[in-house]
Sequence to fold (312 residues):
Amino acid sequence: MRSYSLIACAKINLYLEIIGARPDGYHELAMVLQSIDLADQIDLRPLSTDTIRVRCDHPQVPQDKSNLATRAAELMAAQFSKAFAQYGGVEITIHKRIPVAAGLAGSTDAAAVLVGLNLLWQLGLTQSELEELAAQLGSDVPFCIVGGTAIATGRGDQLSTLPSLDHLYVVLGKYRSLTVSTPWAYQTYRQQFGSSDVADKQSLKQRAYAVHSGPMVSAISHKDGVQIGQLLHNDLERVVLPAYPQVLQLRSAINSTGVLGAMMSGSGPTVFALCETHEQAQHVKRTVRAAIPDPDLDLWLARFCSTGIRVF
Ligand code: C5P
Fold:
């Protein structure tokens, strides 16, 4: 049986609106998600025993059952027990390049495990079947399978694909020692801004419709980077920026370099700058580095991309 190597892209949020609290403890969201080519590599090697083993070279990534990639493999083994018994276990090696707890969908590794095991065990699952399994692992995981540019509603798992935007670049900045807990960010938002329950299906439909026909989607359809930059929006900035002054400072430093726009991604603490060209992105990266010489600050340059999980 052959081994597989997969590329799993990170994502940024171009738009994140919290519509309200859900009875299941999650929040009803309206988001626009974008894949970028900052990516992890995941290798799947068949084992002759019925073991699921995860290895990772990154000290912050657990190698036990708390790793979402392990949970993805266990979910597949439970759902497809005959294939698991027939083909045996798997060794999953994660080459981590996407920073951890950064608001960039590190859970993309779990998406890669689903796609990889579908191939390794010859299950023949469709993309929507994989998305359903992915939603059991985390709200961002279905998007990581599909990738590209998409509207995400519901918990973040209901996707509508948008036209591809792969001509834009981002500079990402994150303090290595700084992580933000996603549950904390949502809970604090709920406490501070009284995100009330949304039981009314009709108003939910209207909100989702408003995003579909809203200015951000129109700007994306026209591939208008200037407009997209002006329309960047993330409700979670309202709780994360006041609590983490370093992130606010980084956002201001990036914004003052004349970029199309700058914003925190997801629950942070990564801040990204939207750039029209590779040259502009290089210039922004150099300028931010000169303005904040702190060795704890990591900077990356990435390009928008239109692919989800792909075989390497
Ligand atoms: O779905 P996932 O496990 O990635 O979500 C992490 C946390 O983010 C959840 O436990 C929840 O606290 C918060 N969250 C939320 N509403 C969403 C998505 C995530 O409150 N739609």
Q: What stands out?
A: The radius of gyration is 19 Å.
